[in-house]
Amino acid sequence: MHELSMAEAIVNTVLDVAKKNNATEIMEVTIEIGQLTMLNHEQLKFLLDVLSEDTLLEKSEIIIEDVPVEIKCKNCEFTGLANTDNSDHYLIIVLCPQCGKKDLEILKGRECNVKTIKIEKSDEDA
Ligand SMILES: [Zn+2]
Hints:
The chain is an alpha+beta fold. The chain has two helices and eight strands, in the order H-E-H-E-E-E-E-E-E-E. It has a three-stranded mixed beta sheet with strand order 2-1-8, with helices on one face. 21% of the residues are buried.
């Protein structure tokens, strides 16, 4: 499942960073999810909750940020936010808002990154 492998990768990344920084607790994690990844946010959040159990992530707040699709049109050179039609939940149609063509370069919208992690460190390091 798409969401499960993503959730596992996110949890591993966050725990790895926390460990390297001697974190005693993870307060907050912000994750950027591009619209084109087609990841279901609800499902991803649920899986993150499950995978966080008994880890430093257990009590942290997980924020998921949606990254809209940005394109560069190869037809009319338009650069910016694309027109997206995701009424069909299995496919997002990306179009140039200026000329309506589909011949585009995708600049943004494929992200699945851990953007920020807020941690609590032990007093010994302070
Ligand atoms: Zn165009």
